[in-house]
Design brief:
heterodimer, A: 221 residues, alpha+beta, three-stranded antiparallel β-sheet, two-stranded parallel ribbon, 13% strand, B: 196 residues, mainly alpha, three-stranded parallel β-sheet, 3 strands
């Protein structure tokens, strides 16, 4: 037997359920919520704002920010100029010029390796494509420029990252870098930039923040 | 103008203009009213910046104006297509001076992942851009950082030059030049005027 669906006339039902008490109390219930939130906000019980330049949200360990070119033991770039990243790049923002490496085991190295940060969409495909752990990402987001030329980062800019301790490593194939290391600028400059700059707002953290201190990392080795 | 008068103005205007400049610049940078203007996904991130978590109002820039006539700042957030180009240009032209422009995200800055027939390869082809923010889309922090850099840039401007007869230097003349060089170029301009 076919079931006949129950027909509900919403207007009728509303008319049946209407009452004076509801009309008066309804808005008051809403007002109570509004006022509670207002008091909470005013007394500072609820404080969702991250006061950005002083406080910063902790990013995920897999955050995809500006790229880093990792280095070999001697400090030269680990990249072998295989064009994997440039091929995988959906925005065509990687430009590589290869050169012949004196070491016959290495074959090629990049004489030029440029990433146009403005065109980059931070998808992380280059990191996935890289067979050498030569390109990884940082959690750095604070890049901006007054001109388009400023954001084309060459090998030096991509390798030596004074601001890295402030942000930490981002998306990368291995949590600990296996074969490669990072090239850094002197310690003093790092400390100067860090002085009184950043406090993490831990209570808004959604993903556990993995602290990363590159200086300690490099001391370990 | 006589040369002596010019010299007097030159010598005295340093103190006056620098102070007045500072007040003007401070007022301008502290109340950047952006256009309500979003083209694509970056606009979502721009809205997030305006919301309570990041609170653009802390910088005086949270008053999103629905009319270009009332706004100082155009945040081009999203992919500008060729069809949208003339509209962006018109909105920019309708904004009163002084005005600034932020290209937010890869698409607005360079065209990003769309090197195609339908996409404008960077909004700087139609309007002058002051600050470019990379990202796809940029995080609210990145937008705030870009805004703070724009505020720094505004503080470098010399709005009183026009009043003291040093010629109405456009934004492009002023920006990118260190303090010492601007003085030289101003002199050069005056010499050029005298010769003419």
């Amino acid at each position: 037997m076919k079931k006949t669906p129950k027909v509900v006339n919403v207007a009728d039902r509303a008319r049946e359920e209407a009452s004076v008490a509801k009309e008066i109390l309804g808005p008051l219930v809403g007002m109570k919520l509004t006022l509670t939130r207002m008091v909470e906000n005013m007394t500072g019980k609820v404080d969702p704002t991250i006061r950005y330049p002083e406080e910063r949200r902790a990013y995920s360990d897999r955050y995809r920010g500006a790229h880093i070119l990792t280095a070999r033991e001697d400090g030269s770039p680990r990249c072998v100029a295989c064009y994997m990243c440039a091929t995988a790049c959906p925005a065509d923002c990687i430009y590589i010029e290869p050169g012949e490496h004196p070491d016959p085991l290495i074959e090629k190295y990049p004489t030029r390796f440029e990433i146009d940060m403005l065109r980059c969409v931070f998808c992380g495909f280059c990191v996935d494509a890289c067979p050498e752990e030569a390109i990884i990402m940082s959690r750095e987001t604070e890049i901006c420029a007054f001109g388009r030329g400023e954001t084309i980062w060459g090998i030096d800019r991509l390798m030596k990252r004074p601001e890295l301790p402030e942000f930490g490593l981002g998306y990368r194939p291995n949590k600990e870098l296996v074969d490669s290391r990072l090239a850094f600028v002197p310690k003093e400059k790092v400390q100067k930039r860090l002085a009184g700059r950043v406090t993490m707002k831990e209570d808004v953290e959604m993903i556990p923040h993995v602290t990363f201190d590159p200086l300690k990392e490099s001391e370990k080795r | 103008m006589a040369k002596e008068t010019q010299e007097i103005i030159e010598s005295s205007s340093g103190i006056i203009t620098s102070t007045v400049d500072f007040v003007f610049n401070w007022a301008r940078k502290s109340a950047l009213w952006p256009m309500t203007f979003g083209l694509a996904c970056c606009a979502i991130e721009m809205m997030a910046t305006g919301a309570s978590r990041f609170d653009l109002d802390r910088f005086g820039a949270g008053v999103f104006r629905p009319s270009p006539r009332q706004s100082d700042l155009m945040i081009v957030a999203g992919t500008p297509t060729l069809k949208m180009g003339p509209v962006i240009k018109r909105v920019w032209d309708q904004m009163p001076e002084p005005k600034w422009c932020i290209a937010m995200g890869a698409c607005a800055s360079t065209g990003g992942p769309f090197p195609t027939y339908s996409t404008l390869q960077g909004v700087d082809r139609i309007v002058p851009v002051d600050v470019y923010i990379p990202g796809c889309p940029p995080r609210p922090e990145a937008l705030l950082y870009g805004l703070m850099r724009l505020q720094d840039k505004i503080m470098q401007e010399h709005p009183t030059r026009f009043i003291f007869g040093r010629g109405n230097l456009s934004q492009q003349d002023v920006e990118g030049e260190p303090e010492t060089e601007t003085a030289e170029t101003a002199e050069g301009k005056e010499n050029g005027d005298a010769a003419a």
